[in-house]
Amino acid sequence: MIKKNPSIVLFCIAGILYFISVLINNEYLALLTKPVIIPSIFVYYYIESKGRLNNLFVLSLVTFFIGDMLYLINIDDYYVLGLFVFLTPYLIVLFFLFKDIVNFLKRNKINKSDLSFIIILFFLIYLMISILNVLDTSSNVEFIYFLLFGIELVFMGVFATLLYVNENSKVNFYLIIGVSLFIVSDIFFILNKNLFPLMIFKLANILSQIISYYFYTRYFIERQKQLK
Question: Residue 85: which pLDDT band, with cuts at 50, 70 and 90?
Fold first, then answer.
């Protein structure tokens, strides 16, 4: 609840101000606000989980923060390094999703008549291939990073869909929204950086990224409660 946890208010204020800083191209406001976003969502997680921290989840927030700071300092200088850094939290998310799938299968069976996850699988693979085919990458290393991102996001999308379709819970609701926002954020990042550098793409990337941090954190808070 917002009234009980002022850190989420700080997160919202920092996110809004950072969004505005990009909109008006104010670097000083960006430098003041973006470094607050991840720490405030961490404090929110710390309070809501009553100090029972999961080291892997904290590591994912730390790596998200490092990637954000690298791009805030200079996205051109740290572009490839930032791509490498952002691969880590997605691997951690995939690890959580894999464990969720395993735990679900111990309790229930997957509904074989529901083919929504297959539709999502083919859609995400088609989307990944389409984007990779039109990308103007500067090196093979950059292309490999984007390929790895695509593979991670495909698995995340399929796992999240499987869980949500078969078990419509609060945990899986936050999960599928968070994963969807990860995908949207990355698509707009690629469009803005490698294809069409438009302000609307940059703003869409930033907005979806900020909101994804909230839903990802809410997912893990509810996940901890469920496991307990």
Answer: very high
